[in-house]
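Input/output pair, single chain:
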Amino acid sequence: MVKIIISVFIVSFSMVSLSQDNLMATKDQEIPEMRVDRNYKQKYRRQLHLLRRTYPMALKAKELIDQYEADLVDIQKKRKKKKYSKKAHQKLKDQFTFNIKDLYQSEGNLLMKLIHRETGMTVNNVVKNYRGAFQTAMYTGMAKVFGQNLNATYDATGDDWITEAVINDIETGKIKFDKSMRLMKKADFKARKKDYNKAKKASRKKYKKKKKVK
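Output:
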Protein backbone atom coordinates (compact mmCIF):
# COMPACT_ATOMS: atom_id res chain seq x y z
CA MET A 1 0.00 0.00 0.00
CA VAL A 2 1.31 3.35 -1.02
CA LYS A 3 0.21 6.11 1.29
CA ILE A 4 0.85 9.77 0.78
CA ILE A 5 0.00 11.77 3.85
CA ILE A 6 -0.17 15.47 3.18
CA SER A 7 -0.30 17.63 6.27
CA VAL A 8 -0.85 21.34 5.90
CA PHE A 9 -0.71 23.30 9.13
CA ILE A 10 -1.39 26.88 10.11
CA VAL A 11 -1.90 29.32 7.25
CA SER A 12 -1.79 32.90 8.42
CA PHE A 13 -2.64 36.02 6.54
CA SER A 14 -2.63 39.60 7.62
CA MET A 15 -3.29 43.10 6.42
CA VAL A 16 -6.90 42.46 5.39
CA SER A 17 -9.03 45.51 4.82
CA LEU A 18 -12.29 45.01 6.72
CA SER A 19 -13.73 48.49 6.31
CA GLN A 20 -13.04 52.00 5.15
CA ASP A 21 -11.02 52.49 8.35
CA ASN A 22 -8.48 49.93 7.01
CA LEU A 23 -8.69 47.74 10.14
CA MET A 24 -6.07 45.00 10.22
CA ALA A 25 -6.98 41.40 11.02
CA THR A 26 -5.09 38.17 11.18
CA LYS A 27 -6.73 34.83 10.75
CA ASP A 28 -5.20 31.43 11.37
CA GLN A 29 -6.62 28.69 9.25
CA GLU A 30 -5.88 25.05 9.95
CA ILE A 31 -6.41 22.65 7.10
CA PRO A 32 -7.09 19.11 8.37
CA GLU A 33 -4.82 16.22 7.50
CA MET A 34 -5.63 14.61 4.17
CA ARG A 35 -4.85 11.06 3.12
CA VAL A 36 -4.40 9.99 -0.45
CA ASP A 37 -4.00 6.37 -1.50
CA ARG A 38 -3.30 5.47 -5.12
CA ASN A 39 -5.46 2.33 -4.82
CA TYR A 40 -8.03 3.78 -2.43
CA LYS A 41 -11.16 2.73 -4.37
CA GLN A 42 -9.95 -0.82 -4.78
CA LYS A 43 -9.02 -1.09 -1.08
CA TYR A 44 -12.29 0.54 -0.05
CA ARG A 45 -14.28 -2.08 -2.00
CA ARG A 46 -12.20 -4.89 -0.53
CA GLN A 47 -12.74 -3.68 3.05
CA LEU A 48 -16.48 -3.28 2.42
CA HIS A 49 -16.56 -6.89 1.19
CA LEU A 50 -14.74 -8.10 4.32
CA LEU A 51 -16.94 -5.98 6.61
CA ARG A 52 -20.17 -7.47 5.26
CA ARG A 53 -19.30 -10.69 7.09
CA THR A 54 -17.25 -9.46 10.03
CA TYR A 55 -18.84 -6.18 11.17
CA PRO A 56 -22.19 -7.78 12.16
CA MET A 57 -20.24 -10.32 14.23
CA ALA A 58 -18.31 -7.59 16.03
CA LEU A 59 -21.53 -5.71 16.77
CA LYS A 60 -23.12 -8.89 18.13
CA ALA A 61 -20.07 -9.47 20.33
CA LYS A 62 -20.42 -5.95 21.71
CA GLU A 63 -24.12 -6.50 22.40
CA LEU A 64 -23.46 -9.72 24.34
CA ILE A 65 -20.47 -8.35 26.26
CA ASP A 66 -22.36 -5.19 27.27
CA GLN A 67 -25.12 -7.44 28.58
CA TYR A 68 -22.67 -9.61 30.52
CA GLU A 69 -20.90 -6.63 32.06
CA ALA A 70 -24.23 -5.15 33.19
CA ASP A 71 -25.25 -8.48 34.74
CA LEU A 72 -21.91 -8.92 36.55
CA VAL A 73 -22.34 -5.58 38.32
CA ASP A 74 -25.33 -7.02 40.18
CA ILE A 75 -23.52 -10.22 41.18
CA GLN A 76 -21.61 -9.76 44.42
CA LYS A 77 -20.26 -13.20 45.30
CA LYS A 78 -17.02 -14.21 43.61
CA ARG A 79 -18.17 -17.83 43.14
CA LYS A 80 -21.37 -16.72 41.39
CA LYS A 81 -19.40 -14.32 39.17
CA LYS A 82 -17.09 -17.15 38.15
CA LYS A 83 -20.07 -19.39 37.38
CA TYR A 84 -21.76 -16.65 35.36
CA SER A 85 -18.54 -15.91 33.43
CA LYS A 86 -18.24 -19.60 32.54
CA LYS A 87 -21.79 -19.59 31.14
CA ALA A 88 -21.13 -16.34 29.28
CA HIS A 89 -18.03 -17.86 27.71
CA GLN A 90 -20.00 -20.89 26.58
CA LYS A 91 -22.69 -18.68 25.07
CA LEU A 92 -20.07 -16.71 23.15
CA LYS A 93 -18.68 -19.99 21.81
CA ASP A 94 -22.14 -21.20 20.82
CA GLN A 95 -22.87 -17.93 19.03
CA PHE A 96 -19.59 -17.60 17.15
CA THR A 97 -17.79 -20.96 16.77
CA PHE A 98 -18.95 -21.95 13.28
CA ASN A 99 -19.28 -18.37 12.02
CA ILE A 100 -15.61 -17.86 12.87
CA LYS A 101 -14.55 -21.23 11.44
CA ASP A 102 -16.19 -20.24 8.17
CA LEU A 103 -14.10 -17.09 7.83
CA TYR A 104 -11.06 -16.73 5.59
CA GLN A 105 -7.85 -15.72 7.35
CA SER A 106 -8.15 -12.10 6.17
CA GLU A 107 -11.70 -11.95 7.54
CA GLY A 108 -10.61 -13.53 10.83
CA ASN A 109 -7.80 -11.01 11.25
CA LEU A 110 -10.21 -8.13 10.63
CA LEU A 111 -12.75 -9.55 13.09
CA MET A 112 -10.09 -9.57 15.84
CA LYS A 113 -9.54 -5.85 15.25
CA LEU A 114 -13.23 -5.00 15.01
CA ILE A 115 -13.98 -6.66 18.34
CA HIS A 116 -11.35 -4.39 19.89
CA ARG A 117 -12.95 -1.39 18.14
CA GLU A 118 -16.42 -2.19 19.44
CA THR A 119 -15.67 -3.48 22.95
CA GLY A 120 -12.40 -1.78 23.87
CA MET A 121 -11.00 -5.26 24.60
CA THR A 122 -8.81 -7.57 22.57
CA VAL A 123 -10.15 -11.07 21.97
CA ASN A 124 -7.49 -12.23 24.41
CA ASN A 125 -8.99 -9.94 27.08
CA VAL A 126 -12.48 -11.23 26.35
CA VAL A 127 -11.43 -14.87 26.76
CA LYS A 128 -9.50 -14.07 29.94
CA ASN A 129 -12.40 -12.11 31.45
CA TYR A 130 -14.97 -14.81 30.80
CA ARG A 131 -12.97 -18.03 31.12
CA GLY A 132 -9.55 -17.64 32.71
CA ALA A 133 -5.83 -17.48 32.02
CA PHE A 134 -5.43 -21.16 31.08
CA GLN A 135 -8.13 -21.00 28.42
CA THR A 136 -6.64 -17.74 27.13
CA ALA A 137 -3.24 -19.37 26.66
CA MET A 138 -4.85 -22.30 24.83
CA TYR A 139 -6.84 -20.07 22.47
CA THR A 140 -3.80 -17.88 21.80
CA GLY A 141 -1.78 -20.94 20.81
CA MET A 142 -4.53 -22.15 18.48
CA ALA A 143 -4.91 -18.71 16.93
CA LYS A 144 -1.20 -18.56 16.08
CA VAL A 145 -1.51 -21.82 14.18
CA PHE A 146 -4.22 -20.27 11.99
CA GLY A 147 -2.34 -16.98 11.58
CA GLN A 148 -4.60 -14.87 13.81
CA ASN A 149 -3.57 -12.53 16.57
CA LEU A 150 -5.90 -12.53 19.59
CA ASN A 151 -4.12 -9.41 20.87
CA ALA A 152 -4.85 -7.44 17.68
CA THR A 153 -5.95 -3.84 18.21
CA TYR A 154 -7.79 -1.43 15.94
CA ASP A 155 -6.08 1.79 14.83
CA ALA A 156 -8.67 4.09 13.24
CA THR A 157 -6.13 6.79 12.33
CA GLY A 158 -3.32 4.42 11.37
CA ASP A 159 -3.35 1.07 9.60
CA ASP A 160 -7.14 0.78 9.72
CA TRP A 161 -8.06 4.23 8.38
CA ILE A 162 -9.67 2.88 5.20
CA THR A 163 -11.73 0.41 7.23
CA GLU A 164 -12.80 3.30 9.46
CA ALA A 165 -13.85 5.32 6.40
CA VAL A 166 -16.05 2.45 5.24
CA ILE A 167 -17.60 2.02 8.70
CA ASN A 168 -18.34 5.75 8.88
CA ASP A 169 -20.14 5.49 5.53
CA ILE A 170 -22.09 2.50 6.85
CA GLU A 171 -23.10 4.30 10.04
CA THR A 172 -24.16 7.46 8.20
CA GLY A 173 -26.31 5.46 5.79
CA LYS A 174 -24.23 6.15 2.68
CA ILE A 175 -23.92 2.42 2.10
CA LYS A 176 -26.75 -0.11 2.22
CA PHE A 177 -25.61 -2.58 4.84
CA ASP A 178 -27.24 -5.42 6.78
CA LYS A 179 -25.92 -5.38 10.37
CA SER A 180 -27.73 -8.51 11.48
CA MET A 181 -25.57 -11.55 12.22
CA ARG A 182 -26.80 -14.87 10.88
CA LEU A 183 -25.96 -17.69 13.26
CA MET A 184 -24.21 -20.54 11.45
CA LYS A 185 -24.89 -24.05 12.73
CA LYS A 186 -22.63 -27.07 12.45
CA ALA A 187 -24.62 -28.60 9.57
CA ASP A 188 -24.47 -25.33 7.60
CA PHE A 189 -20.72 -25.08 8.16
CA LYS A 190 -20.12 -28.64 6.97
CA ALA A 191 -22.22 -28.07 3.85
CA ARG A 192 -20.33 -24.87 2.99
CA LYS A 193 -16.99 -26.56 3.60
CA LYS A 194 -17.99 -29.45 1.34
CA ASP A 195 -19.00 -27.05 -1.45
CA TYR A 196 -15.76 -25.08 -1.00
CA ASN A 197 -13.59 -28.22 -1.22
CA LYS A 198 -15.52 -29.39 -4.29
CA ALA A 199 -15.03 -26.06 -6.06
CA LYS A 200 -11.35 -26.01 -5.10
CA LYS A 201 -10.84 -29.50 -6.49
CA ALA A 202 -12.57 -28.56 -9.76
CA SER A 203 -10.41 -25.45 -10.04
CA ARG A 204 -7.24 -27.51 -9.63
CA LYS A 205 -8.32 -29.95 -12.34
CA LYS A 206 -9.06 -27.07 -14.69
CA TYR A 207 -5.63 -25.56 -14.00
CA LYS A 208 -3.87 -28.87 -14.68
CA LYS A 209 -5.69 -29.27 -18.00
CA LYS A 210 -4.65 -25.78 -19.10
CA LYS A 211 -1.07 -26.52 -18.11
CA LYS A 212 -1.02 -29.71 -20.18
CA VAL A 213 -2.36 -27.86 -23.25
CA LYS A 214 0.51 -25.35 -23.02
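The helical segments are 40-73, 78-101, 105-119, 123-130, 133-145, 161-171, 186-213. The chain has two domains: 3-36, 39-185.
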